[in-house]
Amino acid sequence: MKHYKIAVLAGDGIGPEITQEALKVLKVVEERNDVTFELMPALFGACAYFATGDAFPQATIDICDQADAILKGPIGLSHEESKKIPVDKQPERGALLPLRRRYNTYANFRPVSLPKALAHFSPLKPEVIGEGIDLIMVRELVGGLYFGEKEMGVNEQGLRYVRETLEYDEEQIRRIMHQAFKLAMKRRKLLHNIHKSNVLKSSVLWNEVMEEVAKEYPEVKVVNYLVDAAATALCLNPAQFDVMVMENMFGDILSDQGGGILGSLGLMPSACLGDDKAYYEPSHGSAPDIAGKNIANPYSMIGSVAMMLENSFDMADEAKNVWAAMQGVFADGFSTADLSKPGSGVKMISTVEFGDKVVEKLRAMPKV
Ligand code: IPM
Ligand code: MG
C-alpha cells in the first residue's frame, strides 16, 4: 500500500470551498486504489497573515517541507482589502512567490482544454473551435520580472520612480525548454516558442537557448511566435497550438487568456513542478466576490488533483478517470454558475453538487 503526505493549503476566498470538493474526489481515489493519503492542512495566504502575521508562516513551511506534494487553493483578497496588508506581506508577494522560490517549481503546466462537445462553453464560434481546444502552456515560473531585483524611490528630479529587473540565465531557460520539448515529444511534436525578441534582449537569449535545445529534439517542429501575435492567434485559431512555451510574465497573461477562450478561468488547473517538489493549484485567483456562496466552479481544483495524481503519484490512469468524471458531469448538461448562463441550456448546480456528481461518476468507473 502506497502512502503519500499531501500539504493542503486551502487559501483564501473561494479556496476553502473548492478545496473541499477536491478532497472529496481524493477520498474516492483512495477507496478505489491501493493508496492512502495523509492530508496535512496548513494556513497560507491572507488567512495565514491575519492569523499569524505571516502569509507563509513557519508552521506551513514545515508541513510543506515534509509533504510528498502540495495542493494549493487560490489566494488573495480584493484590491481594497489587500491594502490592509503591508505590500511585502500580501499573499502574492508574501506567500505564493516564496513558495515557488523555496521549492524551485520552475515548470508550470497549464492545460487549456475543451472537448468539441463542450464548445458551447467558449465565447469562440464553433467553426473557430473546430475539433475542440487542446493545448498546454508551459510557463517558466521562478524567473523573469517576478523574481528580479526591484527598487522604488525618488529620483534626482524629485520624481517617484520604480525599477524592476527581467533576468534569466541560460540554465533557467534551458531547463524549461527541455520540459517543453519533452512534452511536445509525447504529444503532437509541435512547439510554439513564445517571445518578444523584436524588443526584449531577454527574448533574444531565450530564442538562442531554445535553438540549442531544439537540436536534441529534431522531431519536434518549432514555430516562433511573438507574444502579442500569439494572443490574437489564440482567439482566431486555437487549434494550431499544441505545446506553447514562454517566460513567466507572458505565461501569466496568456494563461488567463486561455481561461477566456474556454469560457471560464474555473476550467484552468495547473501543475508547478520542481526537481524535488511539486505543487498543484488553479491558475485563477480567489474570486472574493463569490466566496462562501457555494457557486464557484471546483473543476480547476479537482483538475489540479488529477495533475497531482499523474505527476507526483504515478497514477496517470486514475487521473484520466478524474478528468473523465468531470467531463461526464458537463456531458450530462450540468455546470456551476460561471458556465450556465441564462439561455445556455446548461443546468446550474452548486459547488458542492458539482463535487458530488464527480464523486458519483468516479465511483462508477472501472478500477484501474
Ligand atoms: C497565477 C497568478 C499568480 C501569478 C498571482 C496570484 C501572483 O495570477 O498563478 O497566474 O501572477 O503568477
Ligand atoms: Mg495569473
- Tell me the strand percentage band: 15-25%
Major sheet: order of its strands?
2-1-3-12-11-4-5-10-8-9
In N-to-C order, the SSE pattern is EHEHHEHHEHEEEHEHEHEHEEHHEEH
Q: What is the helical fraction, as a range of percent?
A: 40-55%
Terminus-to-terminus distance = 15 Å
* Mean pLDDT rating: 97
Number of helices: 13
What is the fold's blueprint, element by element?
Elements: E1 2-9, H1 15-32, E2 35-41, H2 46-52, H3 58-66, E3 69-72, H4 79-82, H5 91-103, E4 107-115, H6 126-129, E5 132-140, E6 150-154, E7 160-164, H7 170-186, E8 190-195, H8 201-214, E9 221-226, H9 227-236, E10 243-246, H10 248-262, E11 271-273, E12 278-280, H11 299-312, H12 316-331, E13 334-335, E14 347-348, H13 351-364
Parallel strand pairs: 1-2, 1-3, 3-12, 5-10, 8-9, 8-10, 13-14
Antiparallel strand pairs: 4-5, 4-11, 6-7, 11-12
